[in-house]
Amino acid sequence: MEAIWEWGSALVLALQPDSGALALFWRALSVLGDEVFFLLLMPLLFWCINPILSIRVGMVLLLNTTVNTAFKLALAGPRPFWYSAEVRALTAEGSFGIPSGHAQNTVGVWGALATGIARPWAWAGVGVLAILVGLSRMALGVHFPSDVLLGWLLGGLTLAAFMAWSEPIWQRVKDQALNVKLALTFLASLVLVAVPTLVLALLGERDLPAIWLENAAMALPNDPIHPWSLETAVTVGGTWFGFTAGALLLWTQGGLDVRGPWWQRGLRFVLGIIVVIVLWAGLGALFPRDATFVAGMLRYVRYTLIGFWIAFGAPLLFRRLGLVA
Fold first, then answer.
1. Rounded to two decimals, what is the model's pTM?
2. Cis peptide leading into 315, omega within 30 of 0?
3. Using an 8 Å Cβ cutoff, are 156 and 64 in contact?
4. Residues 163, 123: Cα–Cα separation, whole Å
5. CB under 8 Å to 78, separation ≥6 — which residues?
6. Are 76 and 205 in contact (CB under 8 A)?
7. For FRET with 123, which of 107, 261, 279, 319 sits at 20 to 30 Å CA-CA?
């Protein structure tokens, strides 16, 4: 791997911007592959455009994130600014580098959107966006080319697996009683937590080279790295259960008709996202953030509530306020 990292560092250094404006451009592009961006996109789609497409996008995002977290913990590869003191970290990242989550999400999640649009231009757009986001992650000093390539591959494989298996699985469970479907999706959420946890349990926390830790601390003195954290796995599990359980309950009440004028759709999004932010920031401030079991459980609850609000709580509020049919 040393030869790959040496070559990758040279390419990263060549891509790193000399001006603040260009760095801002790369940061803006990088946002389009960010999990936080997609967690805003999910409610926008669900409340305002197409709930079914939102469910598809949300599931692919969460599955992608689980795969990415498991591979990061298994491969334990450095980021360029850990490996080389010459590389500048132009954005803060504390997890392992390979594979690139942004590259993986760009292919997987934007690809899921493209399946809903079903037009050649949409897939062409996904290809262009994947290249630009991949370049942005290298230019920002947080990924080697190998990280990006593996991210693209895993994103494509995750999307393909979802498109091949999601409908057959749904056909097998759709006629089950609601409590059975809720139990199954709860078990699925636990699997999403368990996969990265088992990878870490089997492989253990390996000793990282001292130079990686020194370079990371020098590049980001106020943002210590936390590469062995399982917070993301817990976040995914809680969000999955809340979102899917909410959607199942909502569909027992006729689903959600998102038609209406654009001002009405915009109002839905503003009202709904305010509660998302309150749950995310408010409970985040109240709940502990350490690595204990209790903190993990509370994190699961926090993100379950966020997912449930998006898929069930907010639509009920919109009905009461007359913002949906």
1. 0.92
2. no
3. no
4. 15
5. 5, 96, 97, 208, 209, 212
6. no
7. 261
